[in-house]
Amino acid sequence: MTFEIREIRPQDDASIATIIRQVLAEFGANRPGFAWADPELDHLSAAYQGERAIYYVVTHYEQVIGGGGVAPFPCEYEQMCELQKMYLLPAFRGAGLGVRLMQRLLSIAADYGYRGCYLETFDAMKSAIRLYQKSGFKTLTAPLGDSGHNSCNRFLVRWFDTPGKTSMSKNVNRRETSQKSSSQ
């Protein structure tokens, strides 16, 4: 199969907005408090034009099948980004595309000089949460800031190996919950 991960283009906006809404509806998150209500959802190519922000789409034979992005996240920790709007159509999950997209996003976030990556999600997104945890994200007990997604109930962060990590992570570690390893 032919897959590509590339930067979003304006002609991708309608496709990725439809995919995001479809996936959110699949998990019962088609309402305010989730990305469903984000004003930029229909114009992601423009929304990710800011400094140190990027959105990638995943294509299959040039058809958009998913995407994800990173952008600055205003919170008490300097140099924090947020993993945003990472979704794949159901037919393409479990094929390693989420892992490839995650690796690309975390790599670019580190290249941009971010010291950490934050994300919010909700309990129903079990497979996504497993992907985040396998990618080094740790669970927090409370949000790091106000994303506008007040219906999300899972908060995760991943720190990068950069100078200053230790001093930043000391304070946030109090928010981390203990991670129990479970066999599946």
Give the helices and strands, then pairings.
Blueprint: E1 3-7, H1 13-26, H2 44-47, E2 54-60, E3 63-72, E4 80-88, H3 97-111, E5 116-121, H4 126-134, E6 138-140, E7 154-159, H5 165-172
Parallel strand pairs: 4-5
Antiparallel strand pairs: 1-2, 2-3, 3-4, 5-7, 6-7
What is the averaged pLDDT score?
A: 86
Q: How many helical elements? A: 5
Q: Domains counted in the coordinates: how many?
A: 1
* Spatial gap, N to C terminus: 29 Å
Uncertain spans, ≥5 residues at pLDDT below 50?
A: 163-184
> Which class do the helix and strand fractions yield?
alpha+beta
**Overall shape:** globular
Q: Spell out the helices and strands N to C.
A: EHHEEEHEHEEH
Features:
globular, disordered C terminus, single chain, 184 residues, 7 strands, alpha+beta, Aminopeptidase
Outline the structure in words.
The protein is globular. 27% of the residues lie in helices and 25% in strands. The chain has helices at 13-26, 44-47, 97-111, 126-134, 165-172; strands at 3-7, 54-60, 63-72, 80-88, 116-121, 138-140, 154-159. The protein has a single domain, classed as Aminopeptidase, CATH 3.40.630. It has a 7-stranded mixed β-sheet, sandwiched between helices.
